[in-house]
Amino acid sequence: MPSVTDLMDIESEFSAEELEVRDRVADFVDRRVRPNIGAWFDAAHLPVELVPEMAELGLFGMHLKGHGCPGRSAVEYGIAMQEMEAGDSGLRTVISVQGSLAMSAISKHGSEAQKEKWLPGMAAGELLGCFGLTEPEAGSDPAGMTTRARFEGGRWIIDGAKRWIGLASIADLAIIWAKVDNESARAAGVLDESRLKEGVTEQVRGFIVPTGSAGFTATPIESKLSMRASLQCDIELRGVELDAEAILPENPGMRGPFLCLNEARYGIAWGAMGAARDSIEAALDYAGERRQFDTPLAGFQLTQKKLVDMTVALNQGQLLALRLGRAKDAGTLEPHMISAAKLANCRTAIEIAREARTVFGGNGITTEHSPLRHAVNLESVRTYEGTDEVHTLILGRKLTGLGAFA
C-alpha cells in the first residue's frame, strides 16, 4: 500500500515488478521485524535467524547477475533497502555487507572459479561474508592501511588489523584488503606492470580469507550506542596463510574496494529514506492519538508544520534516490552522483528522525517508538561508507577540478 507520506505520487513512477518487491519486503518487515526490533535493539542482539528468510526473499546479492544471484534491477534493490531500513538500519546493513560489499567484491574482482565457489552459497544465505577495509588508524583514508600480504613459499601470508567490520565474528569468509609489494606480486604472478612506470612500489589487493584460518580472530565490538541490532567487529590477522589463488585477480589498487563501497553507498541513499519515512509515519500515528489540552497533537499548527516539513524533505530524498537508481540501471551513473545522494539523504534522514522524536515528547526516548532508534542508528549510517567530509570533498573535486583531501 502507498504511504500517506507520498505527497508527490512517487509510487506512480514504479513498475509492477518494483511494487511487488516493495510489498514483499514491507510484509517481511511488518511480520518479522517491527514486533521485535525494540527488544533486539535493547538487548544488542542481531537476529541471525532472519538470514534464511532474507535469502529466500532474494535480498543477498540482489542486484548481481549470475552464479545464483537474483539479477534484479538497481531500483528494485534500492526499494528493498528502503523497506528494510524502515525496520532497522542494522538489519539493512546485514544485506549491504553480504551483497554490496563481500559478494560484490567477488563478483567484480574475482576469478570465474572464485565466483563459482562462493557466490551461490552466499546468495542462498548458506555462507556469510564480511568486508575488511577499515583499520583502527585508517578510516577515511583507506590507502593508509597497514595490513600487508606477502608471498612466500607459494602461499600468501597476511598480517594486520581491521575495525568496524560488519558480521565478521559470524562470517564464513572475509574479503580482506591488504598492501602487496611489487616483489611479492611478481613472485605470485599478479604484478600490475602498467603501474611500474609511475613509481608504484605496492598496491592494495583483495583476498578471500576463510574465517576459520589459523591466525584470524574476530571480536564483536560492545557497548555501542548505535546499530545495536547488528554486529560490528575488530579483526586481527596474525600470519594468516592462504593459497596462491586466494587473491582477487581483477582491478588492483584502490579501485577495487572503492567499486564495492559505491555499491554500498548506493543502497544507503535509499535505505536512509526508509528510516526517515518510518519516523514520520510513527509520528503521524502518535500525533493523531495523543491528546493535549483536549486536542489531538495533530491538530496543533506547530505539529502540522513539523509533519509537513519532514514529509517534503522525505519526498525530495526519495526522488533523489530514484533518480540515482534510474541512472544506475541506464548505465549513466557517475560516482559523484552517489556521493551527492549519500551525503544529502543521510543528513535529511537524521534530521527527520530527530524532529519526529519531538512529537512524542518524553515518550519518544523509549524503544516502544522508532524515531530515536532510527536517529542513533543513522549516526552510524552517516559515518560509514564515507563521512560527510569525504563526500563533500568528492563533490568539491567534481565542481572545482581540485582535490582537497590533504
From TrEMBL:
PANTHER family, A to Z: GLUTARYL-COA DEHYDROGENASE, MITOCHONDRIAL (PTHR42807:SF1)
E.C. no: 1.3.8.6
Pfam families per UniProt: Acyl-CoA_dh_1, Acyl-CoA_dh_M, Acyl-CoA_dh_N
Protein name per UniProt: glutaryl-CoA dehydrogenase (ETF)
Record domain Acyl-CoA dehydrogenase/oxidase C-terminal: where: 260-399
The Acyl-CoA oxidase/dehydrogenase middle domain, residue ranges: 130-239
Catalysis performed (reactions): glutaryl-CoA + oxidized [electron-transfer flavoprotein] + 2 H(+) = (2E)-butenoyl-CoA + reduced [electron-transfer flavoprotein] + CO2
GO molecular function: fatty-acyl-CoA binding; flavin adenine dinucleotide binding; glutaryl-CoA dehydrogenase activity
Family of the protein in this entry: Belongs to the acyl-CoA dehydrogenase family.
Cofactor: FAD
InterPro entries tied to this protein: Acyl-CoA_DH_CS (IPR006089), Acyl-CoA_Oxase/DH_mid-dom (IPR006091), Acyl-CoA_Oxase/DH_mid-dom_sf (IPR046373), AcylCo_DH-like_C (IPR036250), AcylCo_DH/oxidase_C (IPR009075), AcylCoA_DH/ox_N (IPR013786), AcylCoA_DH/ox_N_sf (IPR037069), AcylCoA_DH/oxidase_NM_dom_sf (IPR009100)
This protein's record includes keyword Transit peptide: yes
Organism: Corynebacterium frankenforstense DSM 45800
Pathway: Amino-acid metabolism; tryptophan metabolism; Amino-acid metabolism; lysine degradation
UniProt domain Acyl-CoA dehydrogenase/oxidase N-terminal: residue ranges: 16-126
GO biological process, one term: fatty acid beta-oxidation using acyl-CoA dehydrogenase
Uppermost EC category: oxidoreductase
Keywords for the protein's UniProt record, in alphabetical order: FAD, Flavoprotein, Oxidoreductase, Transit peptide
